[in-house]
């Protein structure tokens, strides 16, 4: 293989005039983090709502939760992004579609929302499992004390369910960060996108993707460590959660 | 205080758990419900505060119809204390917070007032020192005493006990029964599902014997232990009193 290694490439100016190649990658990293953060917020909020709906006694809520989860988890993420980005503006009324297409940062919003909804189906299933794993008597005890359904979930069921699913939620958070890389296909210049452009401008493919790999690993190591601290922080004295 | 009339409950069209149950508990009365496992006694007591729905018949608690859709169930339940077989303390809350939660969220008591009431009741069940601990750090007997205190904190007009000692190690049964005996002697209206015939002898006014979803015997304590009228009750008693 005839390849000219050049680790100094990161400190050379990039052709965009935005500083060095390293600056380029770091701006991609920043966009990855922003996209992942927004997507995770969307995933947690909608996923929690849908997950709770799947455990309610109401048949309608169950059905909605079921349909939502199956819709968002049974389609490839890439297809979902294309649907949001290319198809949705066309099937909306003309004015609304036009507004969507002209939205500044359209790839960013599409990626955050697309990845967010995709991940929310997974959060919903996790939370449903967490709630179902609690003894049936917990809900009964809350009800018997006069707590309403909402209060029962808010003060009794959810605090325990979220503690139980914290380890798998960590994985889902990591998946959210990694899944933002798919947004390269709709033109979002996140970390993978910037590594790709660096390769195209400089032909230093190994350096570019080595750097991207290390940056992803670092970010996820930080997340894992932070979640470990969170787990320890919310741990209940004397209570063993499967460990 | 509790009027149960002609209650029928089916789990499925072919599986009837309660058949035409009729009885009542008057103010200040202690009624023990016993019977072989699967006889429907736990189901019946859970119907009283509408934790379990039933298909026909009526239950009135303090004049309020439990099975009326217009009844404010959370409000009714907040006045009916319930103690479960598996304690069902909320594991993520300190003992004192277990006692305060429903006082504050359901009755709208201020935090200080709820705390004072909670501490007073913990002292009464002999667990004042454990107030800052978590449920998992207490023994089963201690947890069940906390559960009784938690129910009492709501100033209930009647207390329901669903096999309160059957999940306990033998040496912890008496500490829980002692609390219940004290409560009975103070004039609390109580409906108690239990196999503790010693408790029944000591404080019950009436004993109800259930078998296969039916109330087979409903007699004053002395009549029940003196000479049960039905064969099934006699057989049951001979089995549990033989040792």
From TrEMBL, chain A:
<feature type="transmembrane region" description="Helical">
    <location>
        <begin position="145"/>
        <end position="166"/>
    </location>
</feature>
<dbReference type="InterPro" id="IPR000515">
    <property type="entry name" value="MetI-like"/>
</dbReference>
<keyword id="KW-0812">Transmembrane</keyword>
<dbReference type="Pfam" id="PF00528">
    <property type="entry name" value="BPD_transp_1"/>
</dbReference>
<keyword id="KW-0813">Transport</keyword>
<keyword id="KW-1003">Cell membrane</keyword>
<comment type="similarity">
    <text>Belongs to the binding-protein-dependent transport system permease family. HisMQ subfamily.</text>
</comment>
<dbReference type="GO" id="GO:0022857">
    <property type="term" value="F:transmembrane transporter activity"/>
</dbReference>
<dbReference type="InterPro" id="IPR010065">
    <property type="entry name" value="AA_ABC_transptr_permease_3TM"/>
</dbReference>
<dbReference type="InterPro" id="IPR043429">
    <property type="entry name" value="ArtM/GltK/GlnP/TcyL/YhdX-like"/>
</dbReference>
<feature type="domain" description="ABC transmembrane type-1">
    <location>
        <begin position="29"/>
        <end position="227"/>
    </location>
</feature>
<keyword id="KW-1133">Transmembrane helix</keyword>
<dbReference type="GO" id="GO:0006865">
    <property type="term" value="P:amino acid transport"/>
</dbReference>
<keyword id="KW-0472">Membrane</keyword>
<feature type="transmembrane region" description="Helical">
    <location>
        <begin position="106"/>
        <end position="125"/>
    </location>
</feature>
<dbReference type="GO" id="GO:0043190">
    <property type="term" value="C:ATP-binding cassette (ABC) transporter complex"/>
</dbReference>
<feature type="transmembrane region" description="Helical">
    <location>
        <begin position="208"/>
        <end position="230"/>
    </location>
</feature>
<protein>
    <submittedName>
        <fullName>Glutamate ABC transporter permease</fullName>
    </submittedName>
</protein>
<feature type="transmembrane region" description="Helical">
    <location>
        <begin position="63"/>
        <end position="86"/>
    </location>
</feature>
<feature type="transmembrane region" description="Helical">
    <location>
        <begin position="24"/>
        <end position="51"/>
    </location>
</feature>
<dbReference type="InterPro" id="IPR035906">
    <property type="entry name" value="MetI-like_sf"/>
</dbReference>
């Amino acid at each position: 293989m005839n390849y000219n290694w050049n680790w100094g490439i990161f400190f050379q100016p990039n052709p965009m005039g935005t500083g060095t190649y390293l600056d380029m990658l770091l701006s991609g990293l920043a966009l990855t983090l922003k996209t992942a953060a927004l997507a995770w917020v969307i995933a947690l909020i909608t996923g929690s709502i849908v997950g709770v709906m799947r455990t309610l006694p109401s048949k309608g809520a169950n059905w909605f939760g079921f349909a939502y989860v199956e819709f968002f988890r049974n389609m490839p993420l890439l297809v979902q992004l294309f649907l949001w980005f290319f198809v949705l503006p066309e099937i909306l009324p003309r004015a609304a579609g036009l507004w969507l297409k002209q939205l500044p940062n359209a790839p960013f919003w599409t990626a955050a929302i697309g990845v967010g909804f995709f991940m929310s189906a997974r959060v919903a299933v996790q939370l449903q499992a967490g709630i179902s794993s609690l003894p049936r008597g917990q809900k009964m005890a809350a009800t018997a004390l006069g707590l309403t359904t909402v209060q029962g979930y808010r003060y009794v069921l959810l605090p325990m369910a979220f503690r139980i699913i914290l380890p798998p939620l960590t994985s889902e958070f990591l998946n959210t960060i990694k899944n933002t890389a798919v947004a390269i296909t709709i033109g979002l210049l996140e970390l993978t996108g910037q590594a790709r452009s660096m390769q195209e401008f400089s032909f230093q493919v190994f350096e570019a993707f080595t750097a991207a790999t290390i940056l992803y690993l670092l970010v996820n190591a930080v997340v894992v460590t932070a979640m470990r601290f969170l787990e320890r922080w919310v741990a209940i004295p004397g209570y063993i959660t499967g460990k | 205080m509790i009027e149960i009339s002609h209650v029928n409950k089916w789990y499925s069209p072919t599986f009837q758990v309660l058949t035409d149950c009729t009885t009542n508990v008057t103010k200040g009365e202690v009624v023990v419900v016993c019977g072989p496992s699967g006889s429907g006694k736990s189901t019946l007591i859970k119907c009283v505060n509408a934790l379990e729905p039933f298909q026909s018949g009526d239950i009135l608690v303090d004049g309020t119809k439990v099975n009326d859709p217009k009844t404010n169930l959370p409000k009714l339940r907040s006045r009916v204390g319930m103690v479960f077989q598996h304690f069902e303390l909320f594991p993520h809350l300190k003992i004192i917070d277990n006692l305060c939660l429903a006082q504050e969220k359901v009755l709208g008591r201020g935090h200080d007032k709820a705390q004072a009431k909670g501490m007073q009741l913990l002292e009464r069940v002999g667990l004042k020192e454990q107030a800052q601990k978590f449920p998992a750090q207490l023994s089963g007997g201690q947890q069940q005493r906390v559960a009784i205190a938690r129910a009492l904190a709501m100033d209930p007009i009647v207390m329901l006990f669903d096999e309160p000692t059957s999940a306990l190690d033998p040496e912890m049964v008496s500490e829980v029964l002692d609390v219940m005996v004290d409560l009975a002697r103070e004039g609390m209206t109580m409906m108690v599902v239990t196999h503790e015939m010693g408790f029944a002898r000591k404080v019950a006014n009436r004993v109800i014997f259930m078998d296969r979803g039916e109330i087979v015997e409903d007699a004053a304590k002395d009549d029940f232990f003196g000479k049960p009228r039905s064969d099934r009750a006699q057989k049951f008693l001979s089995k549990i009193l033989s040792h």
